[in-house]
Every structure is written in C-alpha cells, then in structure tokens.
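Final report, closing paragraph on structural work. Over the funding period we assembled a curated collection of sequence-structure pairs, and we close with a single example.
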Amino acid sequence: MIYRWRFAKRYGKARRFTQNLSKTFDVRCAKVSFRIDFFENCAYNLICEVAAQAWLVRKVGENMADKEILEKLADECGGIFRTSDLAALGYSTYAIRKLVDEQIIERIKQGYYSLCKTNELISEAGQIAQLFPDGVLCMYTALFYYRYSDRTPLEWNIAVDRDTSKSRFKLDYPFVQPYYMKKEFLVFGVTAADYGDCTMQIFDRDRLICECIFYENKIDRETYNKAIQSYVADTKKNVPKLLEYAEKRRVLKKVKDRIGVWL
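Its predicted structure, as stored:
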C-alpha cells in the first residue's frame, strides 16, 4: 500500500513536470515562431519597398527617354507626327495608347498626334498645314486672306482631291470644310500663302474668283458680291489668267456674263 502511494505520488509529480515542460516548450516555440514571422514580414516589406523604388526610378527613366525621343520626332515633323512615325521608332499600338493615357502625347485625329505640352504652341494654320499638305485654301478662307471679305471664317475651306479619304476631315478642332474636286483642278492657279509660322497652298486671286462663280449657288450672296467687286478693283488681278482658269474650270461663259462688263 505504501509503495502504491509513493508510486502514485512520484507519477503525479512526473506528470505535472511533463505538462509544465510541454507548456514551457509550447510558449517558447510560439515566441520563436512569432519572431520568425516578425522578421519575415519586415524582410517582405523591405523587399517590396525596394522593388517599388526601383520600379519608380525605372518608370521615370523610361518617361524621360520617351519624352526626349518624342520631342526630337516632333521637331523633325513640325509638331505633328503620325502613327507610322511612332511605329518606325518601335512603339506598338499598346505603347502609343499608353503614351496617350499618361498624357505624354495627345491624339489630334485618327493617326495623328502631338506632344501635350507643345500642342498649344502650334497654331491652327500650322495644324492644317501638317494635316493637309495636299490641300489648297479656297472659298471663304482665301477670300478673307485676300481681303475680298471682312468676315472671319469659322472654318478652314480646303480644296482636295475628290478621291481622298473622307475620314481625314473628322476633326474635333480646328473645323474644316473640304471642297472635293478632280485632281487635275488642283494643279493650276495655286500659289503660296504665308501664315506666320507656316506656308500653305492657296488659290491665287484669279483662280479664286473662278471658284466663287463655280460655287455661286453655295456662297453667301453678300459675300459673293463683295468678292466680285473687290476683285474688279484689285490692281493685282490678271484678266488673261482669269479667262484661262475659267476655261479650264468650265465656267468661262459665266465669268464673262458675271464680271465681263466690269473688266
């Protein structure tokens, strides 16, 4: 009986000792695990911060490189460049869209872009000259240029080949009104007009009057009459050229009927 009691007592102490030892071990393991998790989190946060800084530095470097490349391209193209120009430099469609989203370049119209910071420095005439190098200023725009009309045009009147794509003229700004005609009608009576920061093609005085008579049903009557009177009084007019152009434009009879008595 005594031996059983002693054994039970010793067994109880051993059991309690084992339980305490287990608890101590669990606590220490928990502390070690906590420390490991803590250091892992610190290391992870440090790696993320370093990676973010590296990405930011790389991104800034890429943007600076893009701006330098695009500024050089803009200088070479007169401020406005095309999708094909960007593609030649290695920019994909996705990369071009990204440049627009990051406000590095701005889309003027389908396939045409300019640098955001320089777009405001390009005049309307400069944009028209870049977008329509094959166009010829005519009608209200040309009348105002020659001072045959004192009304400031609300849009740019441009004579273009009738086979040209109509989508070219889908502009939010500046406003453009195309006049479609055969290509053969775009090669005579054309001269240069100085618009400050650019030079554009324009019909000369004599050809312009032929166009006004050709489109007399589409032009404002007051403007039409003032244009005819201003041309008749213009010392720079050239009547032989007027008649030559009128014959080519097939309005010779109308020219003689409308202004022949004044010449």
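Residues 2-77 form the longest helix (76 residues). Residues 2-119 form one domain. We thank the funder for supporting this effort.
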